[in-house]
Design goal:
heterodimer; A: mainly alpha; two-stranded antiparallel ribbon; 74% helix; globular; B: mainly alpha; 8 helices
Chain lengths: 184, 172
Amino acid sequence: MLQTIRSNNRLQLFLGLLVGIGFGFLLQKGGVTYYDVIIKQLLLQDFTVVKVMLSAMVTGMLGVHVLRSLGLAQLHPKPGGIGRTLPGALIFGIGFGTLGYCPGTAVGAVGHGALDALIGGVLGMLAGAAVFAAVYPKLTPILNKGNFGPLTFPQLFKVNPWILVIPVSVAMAGLLYVLERTGL
Amino acid sequence: MEFLTMDRWSPYAVGIGIGILSWLTFLLSDKPIGCSTAFARSAGLLERLFRGDKVNDKPYYREFVPQIDWEWMLVAGILIGAFVASVLSGQFQWSVVPDTWAAAFGTGSIPRLAVSILGGFCAAFGARWAGGCTSGHGISGTLQLAVSGWIAAAGFFVGGIVTAMLIYRVIG
């Protein structure tokens, strides 16, 4: 049954669209498609973005690991490396702080009429992606430096995933509680 | 159905909703939620319009084939979902300069658009360098306890906080 659904390409495109509609709806309702909300998070004045992300992480982590334990889902961790993950993330962060949207929330912002997210965000991001594709062959040696592949923390520490899922979820929930108590 | 027309939902409700969406994508599509690969594929699709099929031979586009796939449809869905949500609450509004920006740098459109183009460029360049963005690494990577996801999420916020502080506390 699941295999039939997963291998039906046209159904998958439709499911992608449906999930995206739900995702965009939630992002707008959460206020995180707004520059003001995102930039105030980065200025540490408003913690809406962190609250949304941590709640999504805890919920997602518990559910996806249950599905995995039941044999209904597989994990797909992205490969990482010294030359790849941190330098790329810091460049992304510079863009995130300058643009005030990330790729997904920029598209959501266009949905409610933010033209800076369309012209700056979407066009700037298409240009950034195109230039990255052009320089990719030259960057490959740096990108492959210290490659550790699609590693997860349970694999790294050689433990059952639940040994980490439970304490990490509790810690994230605790952090949310502290944020709420301190009025942030 | 009043909740559909509310301006804002609790960030916890929104986060839990996004978490549940991630269950569905793992279960029904065998994929984590992500956004930035769709920008790479779109850039390739646009390049192919101007330069023809030889674009497909670029090493990057051999890995990330310029085509409309599941994730591309997801990003298209974000546009529709946010549009519907904002129309339902009467918040849809054309805008160029956000309030926080206007308070520090004025209401002129050109400076905001110029800076946002620069920001968008860096965001996509960095996302492709890191292999994911706030969705693919920040949410999907961390929830899978991927080492890359946690390092990337830390880098996104460190880079973002330092940049925002420089723009608003030093320049602005």
